[in-house]
Amino acid sequence: MDWKKELNRWKEEENIDGSLKEQLELLDEAELEDAFYKELEFGTGGMRGKLGPGTNRMNVYTVRKAAKGLAEYVKNKKGDSIVIAYDSRYLSETFAVETARVAGAEGVKAYVFSSLRPTPELSFAVRHLGADAGVVITASHNPPEYNGFKVYNEDGGQLPPAEAEKMITLVQKVENELEVDTEEAGTLEEKGLLAWVDTDVDEAYLEAVQGIRLSDDIDKDMSIIFTPLHGTAHPLVTDSLKRAGFTNVSLVEAQAEPDPEFSTVASPNPEETQAFTLAMEKGQKTGAELLIATDPDADRVGLAVPGEDGDYRVLNGNQTGALMLDYILSQNEELPDNKIMIKTIVTSEMGRAIASKYGARTLDTLTGFKFIGEKIREFEASGEATFAFGYEESYGYLVSSFVRDKDAVQASLMGAEMAAHWKKKGYTLLEALEELYKEHGYYIEGMDSLKLEGRAGTEKIARIVDSFRETELKKAGGLEVLATEDYQSSERIFADGTKETIHLPKSNVVKFILEEDSWFCLRPSGTEPKLKCYYGVKSRDREESEELLEALRAEVSEKWHAVN
């Protein structure tokens, strides 16, 4: 794209939004280039970007363009309705209504939540209302200056690659985002093309969440502190815990109300210990036994529990996933012999060991819960396997498939039940985790990221991944390389030169399989301007695993920083 030409097109538009026009005047040349040098793209989490003017920004015009493409996508599938939800971010409600206005102008009915709701409830609502697609306006746990447009298909799952490509093609056919037709909300209501949804869907969803419970033989008086981190989870998580009989649940009041600035945290991300600061302070005063934190759109959840020294420890995503998987498979005797656990390629191998113990298969997918949702749908149709649990290292878990995306409301309830189960047996979650390590081995994981913004950053990330792809590694961190998995060429290349096909969608990802059940994987983020590198090691001793991980991270990091 000629960014100056695109900039002039916006400047010459007489009816452009006044606030956006004012913002344009405040940007320097570098900022203007970044805002107009390309169009926002759909990645692993849909369309997501910084708020502001420009074709590479989230604003009413880029949202309208995406909504127009979605409406065409729905009509091409002979559909006639969508569901729209939104979170607590800046302009989320505006973008939700704009999406409905565009859809209605195209003859597609929109069911819109009249106030903010979590992402997993949107997934549920698409299925519950029999709609043909869904949208949630969210940027998950990104900084306050971001927002996004995440699209779901009629199954309630995020668009997998083939469907996303169709959607992208239709969006790209919209020649001028400044001239997309809209209709007034009141007119659409009169025509029956806009309907507001609320408590009926909430109640149906909450009832389904209660269905995941596995045992009442637990200590329901366990002290729990919950924080929604200024997001959407407050009513549904607290209601779910109350309905399940948990009598000792308190809220971090300072973080209970929606706040687009997420003013009490550096980042509203339960993957980061700082997000638990206020919950930990309250926990120390009250002696809480479990802390629960959800991200703004309530698809990710973090758990923290007291250690031996009394300080709280935040479980990482792999640890929580391993504990949940073990609890679910140990308690759910109704699961059939063809049960399957689904995880991503950058999620700990510990889950595979646990699943095997209980006679469950493990299936790996590319990073992104849309691939897990896609497999659930396939297995439901074929009867080949029965979904038992799905998770990814980035704090996303799905207990039951009435939702087709990661669900922090389900995971919060299951985390509380699991902790209460172990408490009654005399264990904390940390002690239960230690027992799993002793049984299966000390699996320890890590992740490093390199933030590189703008066009130059995108190009450098590609060069780094290519440099690893093109280098024939023999050892990494003192461990032999057994195989290289190139998901762009769909090849698994073994050390002896033999090859086999990887039956997953193509993606710019490279993974190195090392001896001793160890590995590392490089992947450009689909939602942020970052290169991510994931690591996993295993030994029979915690100290040895920590040393292996440190050596591996140091060597790989040195290699990627050496790339110009």
Provide a brief overview of the structure.
By secondary structure, the protein is of the alpha/beta class. It has 18 helices and 24 strands.
Keywords:
564 residues, alpha/beta
Helix content: 25-40%
User: Structural class from helices and strands?
Assistant: alpha/beta
Helix count, DSSP H or I runs of 4 or more residues: 18
Which percent range describes the beta-strand content?
A: 15-25%
Shape: globular
Oligomerization status of the protein chains: single chain
User: Which spans of ≥5 residues are poorly predicted at pLDDT below 50?
Assistant: none
Q: Main sheet?
A: 8 strands, antiparallel
What is the mean predicted local confidence, pLDDT?
95
State the end-to-end CA separation: 25 Å
Radius of gyration: 23 Å
Please count the beta strands (DSSP E, at least 2 residues each). 24
Description:
With 564 residues, this protein is α/β, with parallel strands linked by helices. Helices cover 39% and strands 22% of the residues. It contains 18 helices and 24 strands. The longest helix is centred in the C-terminal third of the chain and has 20 residues, at 542-561. The protein is globular.
